[in-house]
Amino acid sequence: MELRNYETVFILTPLLNEVQMQETVEKFRQVLKENGADIIHEENWGLRKLAYPIQKKSTGFYHLVEFKAPGNVVDALELAYRRDEKVVRFLTTALDKHAVAYNERRRNGEFKSQAKKEEVKG
């Protein structure tokens, strides 16, 4: 079975403390690993304001996971999201070769260094 690159972002309820948030993220990490996914990169974006209220909440803990896996893993992961009441929203997307290249460049800090160069010039 062919492995594809995916990226998933999920928002957890702001009512969680730091330990509960980390446990929930670890649970989704385990779902990915149990189904044969290879986690490439993770980012915890922290507590952020939502664009609009969801379930009467205006903030949430954002977390991004980039992984490589067969297609059936996405179904298992999204089922786990739907079963967990701590998840406010989620979105999983398949990445094409351009998105994979962009993410790799972003992880290597290419865009941050360009922004600093522009600040120095300005």
UniProtKB/TrEMBL annotation:
Superkingdom of this protein's organism: Bacteria
Gene Ontology CC: one annotated term: ribosome
InterPro entries, per the entry: Ribosomal_bS6, Ribosomal_bS6_sf, Ribosomal_S6_plastid/chlpt, Transl_elong_EF1B/ribsomal_bS6
Gene3D superfamilies: 3.30.70.60
Keyword set, alphabetical order: Ribonucleoprotein, Ribosomal protein, RNA-binding, rRNA-binding
SUPFAM superfamilies: Ribosomal protein S6
UniProt xrefs under CDD domains: bS6 (cd00473)
Pfam families named in the record: Ribosomal_S6
HAMAP family: Ribosomal_bS6
Role played: Binds together with bS18 to 16S ribosomal RNA.
Protein family (similarity comment): Belongs to the bacterial ribosomal protein bS6 family.
Protein name as catalogued: Small ribosomal subunit protein bS6
